[in-house]
Amino acid sequence: MSVESSGNTEITLEIAGLSHSFLHNGAAEPVLRNISLSIRRGELVCLVGRSGCGKSTLLKIIAGFLSPSRGHCLLEGRPISGPGPDRCVVFQEEALFPWLTVRENIAFGLRGKRWTPAIRNHQVDRFIELVGLRGYDEHLPRALSGGMKQRVALARVLILSPLILLMDEPFGALDAQTRDEMQELLLSLSQERSQTILFVTHDVQEAVTLADRVLLMDQDSGRIREDVRVELERPRDRSAPPFQQYCIQLHQLLRQTGPRPMIAD
Amino acid sequence: MKGKEALLALLLPLTALTLWFAVSAVGLVPVYLLPHPLTVWDAGIRYIFGNAGQGAYAGRFLVDLAASLTRVLLGFSLAAVLGIPLGILSGRLALVNRLFSSAINGLRAVPGICWLPLAMIWFGIGIKTTVFLVAIAAFFPIYQNTLTGARLVAPIYYQAGAMLGVSRVRGIFAILLPMAMPNIITGLRLGMGISWAYLVLGELTGVPNGLGAVIMDARMSGQTEIILVGIILIAMIGRICDRLLVSLMRLCFKSARRQI
């Protein structure tokens, strides 16, 4: 799916000159340095980097859970201030509300929508169906497998039609088989709805499977180092040589972004 | 399966009862120390169902129960009304916690019985002293468990709530309270249990009615069987109150129904 060819080049997310530091023993330790990026409407962008490179921090800033030390973050031209239903997150950890059923979890964010109960029920039914959880409406999260929990987590944010969907290694804790299924589900849902997605992962193969574009983060500098467009037809065949080629290329780039050597002082 | 569980629950009480019968039958212990179970049974029946003329304590049960329940419920409610909000504030706000924690932990170290003389000076002999003692005793477990529950709610749930459009204030009711519910209920149950202990302490001070008053009164008049009746009744009523408390919480809150 090429975004440019449809003539739709509208920017959903624009980040410019963004830096962030954490206080560590009283000293500011930079995590993100001068990050600039933009994501077009309908694009699926994967942010790839090693653990600790700051990719989750960047996601938290976009989600509004953190305020950046410097720089700005615009969503459809408006500055981001605090979390909100226009930028929803699917977390890696379990974050479903344990006392609510699947149906109630999915309906949780709809309070602000002012829908009639009929429309609300219809929508919830539709999304339960979409993520393949029919028959599990009245189950509590503790009765679900890891993959099913992430389906609920996906449904409860997709139902809000966020401007951008933020995913923080959402399938990282799933087994390989389930992860494949979830990737397929995400692709079909996102293409159907032209959902804009920023997907954080450390798994190169996952990035090449999903992404229109892969952004590679550098651990050393806290910068985005490479911006690789994945020009492969969907559905992508993981055994095909071009797919492998992308993986090898990204692996090599990732290896060059290794941790800075320890300096004894 | 259900029957097996019930049998298991009754195993210890039944063994104790059998032992008691045996000890009384052999005459191992003089009756003024430990009366025969049937004597206690008769005294209990008279205390609960008898008419006023049939003996010293006959038919007093309902009046005593009403008096004791009122004191327990008032003291317990007072403890819950103070303990839950304070616990939540201390669990979520470091400033509040710093303000209260050392004072509250200090007070908690004071044995409950120390409050009795002070309470008697402040409130005299009567319902206020008992309610005060019950409230003080029940406050600490309710406060401490609520605090722990509030503190244990992982930040990710607030983040999830915030992105789903929950404001900070509504988050207290939509996220914090339901998440902390299992701990709050633990606190309330511990508080309820200790309420009965301090009820008896409060009623030992010469109030005319109440289950504790009966126990103390029976000691003066040397009726050991009435003391035992009182103890057994308090154990049973305490157990019933605990079940009722859990049922009430489950009835009122989805988060209680589904998490405990």
How are the elements arranged and paired?
The complex is a heterodimer of chains A (265) and B (260).
Chain A: E1 11-24, E2 27-40, E3 44-48, H1 55-63, E4 70-75, E5 78-79, E6 87-90, H2 102-107, H3 117-130, H4 146-158, E7 164-168, H5 176-193, E8 197-201, H6 204-210, E9 213-217, E10 224-229, H7 241-255
Parallel strand pairs in A: 3-8, 3-9, 6-7, 7-8
Antiparallel strand pairs in A: 1-2, 1-4, 4-5, 9-10
Helix pairs in contact in A: 4-5, 6-7
Chain B: H1 2-26, H2 37-49, H3 61-92, H4 94-108, H5 115-123, H6 127-152, H7 155-163, H8 168-203, H9 211-220, H10 224-252, H11 254-259
Helix pairs in contact in B: 2-10, 3-4, 3-6, 3-8, 3-9, 5-6, 6-8, 7-8, 8-9, 8-10, 9-10
Contiguous helical run count of chain B: 11
| Name of the CATH homologous superfamily of the domain at 62-210 and 243-259 in chain B | MetI-like
Largest chain interface and its two residue counts? Answer: A-B, 25 and 17 residues
Structural class of chain B: mainly alpha
For this structure, the quaternary state is: heterodimer
Q: Tell me the fraction of residues in β-strands of chain B, as a range.
A: under 5%
- Mean pLDDT across all residues of chain A, rounded? 90
Q: What is the number of strand segments of chain A?
A: 10
Shape, per Cα inertia axes of chain B: globular
Low-confidence stretches of chain B: none
